Structure formats: structure tokens, C-alpha cells
């Protein structure tokens, strides 16, 4: 089966071939002919990584009228990153078409710039729900000529609390448009959207997520010893240091802390969590895509909408709270026909949760046996810093600062002394680089934080 067999024209097929896409996936085989030949609404249930973006992008591109300089297709997405990726696919696959233009609009970027771009000929808009409503309120775009409305990752949009915005957008659209909903899971709110806004004769296409997982992803669990979880993680990463992956934590505090604990380790890691502003988030993602960072430490919410190809592994440092979260996490590896590994870190009393995942998803977990290297004795060193009472520090909050910002453990910080403009403490020498990397460039009370191991120099304020 080829894309030509599905009805895709030669101009789009040429663009696909130039991007090394030659064989359609299951979701594309079932979806593309339906969109090209029918005007009925569509529900497609398929896991992340099955090629669903091209499944709606290609037939929409083929049916766009380039002579009509109006918005003819709207794709709603949960996050800025996914919006950029979807718009990029429209751009890549329309390379040999006659002047078909797509624009991505999202929060976290100046709305005035987006308004100016929308004044140009625009046939496809890819938008996050909140930003689309802002633009509609300003009359910056019109949906009067819309032919297609796509809800991409509909379950993620519901999880992120966009139900009210989706309702408003769907109510504002003409009933005659073709609506398409793509989702990996089918929670109650998604079912409600389908019931309220899709025609009764909608077609449902379902790609067996369990079969997809079993074919592409190897599921493993690693039993770590209490108090040594980080050492087991480092042992795994050491064996995969030339590969790339994502470590999932349950909270943003845990993600931030784990990334700091990995500072200076042989695998370069950075955190992606809800406390990052858009500029910092973009910086982390650029580093990851360009290979400067091999490991993302992320929360489920922060990782939504990320589409990184060629991820070798996913680590569940904290087990997901819901089965569908495991599906979303694991689906980020084994993409584009490649294999991947999904590893759960568990204590011995959490084995039952692994068995539950096996039963609910019809998958099989293999035990992963890894032993951390025996730790060598690390002699204590004394680190002097140019902060003290005058900058608002006491022994207690200096310890808290080192735990939170340097990623140290409480028991590793000993013999804290705080003076007017100087403080010092003892830590095992193995943490020296971790402290430096996490705290360099830090500013406290308009003072650049500085370090030294030289007591005499610190008294003379030489760092």
C-alpha cells in the first residue's frame, strides 16, 4: 500500500518522499481515504506515535482551495509545541503545492505578531484553544469559510482543562463543517464532546493501542533498593549514555530536584516542568532536539504535546497515577517504526501495580536487573560562599537552599557556619561539581553567588 494508492496526489507524495516517508501507517491507511471521499465526521482512536498528524494533514492539504484566501481548516492542539510541530508538517507536505499557507497561533507569544501574520493569506490555522478565542474576540480571524475542524490529542486538551474553551469554539462553528477528533484514550469529557457536537453518523476508526505497544515497545521494571533509587537510575543511564530519553516524575518539585541531582553526571540532563517560563522551556527543548541534552526530566503536564522522534527509552521514575498516563508516556518512544524501551522504577511492594498495568493494557513486563557500582569513599571538603546573615541566611534556610537549588541531600550537608557575609559547610567531595553547575550564575540580594575551597581567600572576599 502506497500513499498514491490512498488517493494522495503526486505533488504531496513527492514532498513525503523528500522527507523519507514512503509507507503509510495503519491510521493513515484507514483515515486518508475516508477524509478524501466523505464529508462525515470522524473519531480516530490511536496512540501517540502512530502517524495521526499526517493522517489528517495530507487529505486536508489536498482539498484546500489555494485560490480562496480564507481559513479553510482549523486544528486545535493542547500545547504550543504540538502546534508548532503540526504547522511544520503542513509546511513540509505542501512544498510542491500552489501557495497553501498554514499558521500556528498559541499563548506565550505576542498576540500582535500573530495578528499581523494572519492578515496574510492563510488557509490552515493550528491553534491552542485559549489563544484562538483571544483572536476571535479581537476579530483577528474568521471561521466563516471553514471546511474542517480537527481536535488533535482531544484527551490531552480535556486533561488540561480546555473543555469550556472547546465548547465555545465548537458552538461558534458552522454545523456543516467536517469535524475530526483524534485521541489516544476515551475519557468521559471526550465522549461528551462527541455526543454534543459530532453528527450521529460519525465514523470511528480505532487502532489497537495494545497491539501497537506490544509490537514496538519493550516493557521492563527495575526493583531498586530503598534509599538508593538515584544510584539505580545512574546505573541505567550509564549503560545508555549514547541514547536519548525522558524520565517522568510525578511532581514539578521532584522533576526539578532530580535534574539538579544529575548535574555533572555523564548523561546531560535538564528539567521540563510547570515552573519554567516559555523562554526557558523553549531553550530546554532546543537543547534536547539539537543533541546538547540527552535526557529530559519531565512531569506529565509539562511533556504534553512534545513530539521528539528517535527516543530510545522512557523511564517512569514515579509510577503514573492512571493507566492512560502510562500509555501516553510510553508512546513517546518506539515511533516511526522503531523500537523502544519503557522502564518502571519500583520498590518490591509495588510489583502489584506492574501486574495491574499488564492486565489492563494486555502487555508483558520483563524484569530489568541492574546493580549500581559500589560507591567509593568520598572525603569531605569545605565550601565557602559569599552569602551570610546580611543576605538573610541562617543555618536552617541555608540548608534548605542547598537541598532545593543544589540538589543535595540533608544528611550530606554538615557543619554549617553562617557569618555576616560568608558561610561555609562540609559536603562529600563527589558533590563539588554538582553544586557548582547548579549554583553558578545564581544571584541573591543583588549579589552574584561565588564559591571557593580556600578559607583565607574567602575571608578576604576573593572567590
Explain this structure to me?
This protein has helices at residues 10-18, 26-37, 52-63, 80-93, 111-118, 129-137, 154-159, 163-172, 188-197, 209-216, 229-239, 252-261, 278-289, 323-330, 351-361, 395-406, 432-439, 455-459, and strands at 42-45, 73-76, 102-105, 124-127, 148-151, 178-183, 203-206, 217-223, 245-249, 269-272, 295-299, 313-316, 340-346, 365-367, 380-385, 414-418, 423-428, 443-444, 447-448, 451-452. The protein is of the alpha/beta class and 463 residues long. Helix 13 links the parallel strand 10 (269-272) and strand 11 (295-299). The longest helix is centred in the N-terminal third of the chain and has 14 residues, at 80-93. The mean pLDDT is 90.
Task: Report a brief summary of the structure.
With 463 residues, this protein is an alpha/beta fold. It has helices at 10-18, 26-37, 52-63, 80-93, 111-118, 129-137, 154-159, 163-172, 188-197, 209-216, 229-239, 252-261, 278-289, 323-330, 351-361, 395-406, 432-439, 455-459; strands at 42-45, 73-76, 102-105, 124-127, 148-151, 178-183, 203-206, 217-223, 245-249, 269-272, 295-299, 313-316, 340-346, 365-367, 380-385, 414-418, 423-428, 443-444, 447-448, 451-452.
List the helices and strands and how they pair.
Blueprint: H1 10-18, H2 26-37, E1 42-45, H3 52-63, E2 73-76, H4 80-93, E3 102-105, H5 111-118, E4 124-127, H6 129-137, E5 148-151, H7 154-159, H8 163-172, E6 178-183, H9 188-197, E7 203-206, H10 209-216, E8 217-223, H11 229-239, E9 245-249, H12 252-261, E10 269-272, H13 278-289, E11 295-299, E12 313-316, H14 323-330, E13 340-346, H15 351-361, E14 365-367, E15 380-385, H16 395-406, E16 414-418, E17 423-428, H17 432-439, E18 443-444, E19 447-448, E20 451-452, H18 455-459
